[in-house]
């Protein structure tokens, strides 16, 4: 469920886990060259996730909210196919599950092969430079005026927006989300 926490934290004001950015100040026409620099990517932009069949559930580095929503919609659709109610008045399948995990655990287990996955670069088990990259992402975000903090230690570290009303508003703005995507790409792309 760690990957499931990603969407929640992006949408909950107060403690926003942010996705991050393309090089701070990088030109848009460099994006094609950058794709090939991502570990596991080919010059055509395909990744190791595509080769293993996980492309439909792996967040791309710097995922947009639309990409995140698409991946989670497919995952939660599986839950509803296996019996977790998704009526709007129930709060959707995730809230229904959280209210009664024992009742719906079998449905969640049946969808384990569809659970969203972080980009390999954001997976501490696959990226030996994860902690350093996270620090670089934090510095990039802060260079754009969004105060961040690293919570957890070592491979358990996560980047969170500092819980200040103005800071959270900036982090959750369209501009802040773009800064976050750009910083994530800049920090986690192999140099």
From TrEMBL:
The keyword Signal applies. This is Lipoprotein. Keywords: Signal. Residues 1-28 form the signal peptide. It comes from Actinoplanes couchii. The lineage of its organism: Bacteria, Bacillati, Actinomycetota, Actinomycetes, Micromonosporales.
